[in-house]
Amino acid sequence: MFWQAGLIGLAIAAPVGPIGLLCISRTLRGGPRLGLATGLGAASADALFALAGVAGSSMALHLAGQLARPLAWAGCLLLAWMGMATLRRPALEAADREEGGVGLRRAYAGALLLTLSNPMTILSFAAVAAGLSGGLPASGAQQLAIVAGVFCGSASWWLALAYGGGALLSRLGARGRRWLDAGCGLLLLGFAVLLAWRAAGI
Question: What is the mean pLDDT of residues 21-45?
């Protein structure tokens, strides 16, 4: 069950989205550690969603529905702010790219909050948990295996993207990195507009 959940966590993390763009942008600016911190924030949120799903908490599912709109708008504003900040900040030189502990904590917390702004994901994890447990209530050991698997699967993707992708990104040269970073900022703004459109329809 751990490995099945791990594959699910990997599949959830892998598609290109706002967190992937943030991971790429922060890897360009602050190095692989900053990119990984961003990804681990998302992986932690995925694990929390998985925990709520496997626990079958009716209160968590109810709150997910009640808070869907305000959290969607909060996520929209956070995405827009991150996109504008990416476009406004000058690209960092290689010698200045390593961030300290404060930068890592901010990257982690920002990605955690951004991922948690999509509470409807709990419903997806609830369905996943039901499938993995054969439709029966998951035991404590099964819940732990599912949550740990989702986190490890998601985290493995961010590790590969931050370090493997970071090694490839470093070959782009300063001009290429600036263009890619600007592209990430524009796409983040695009995701903010998309999220606002969806929030208006909730």
Answer: 88
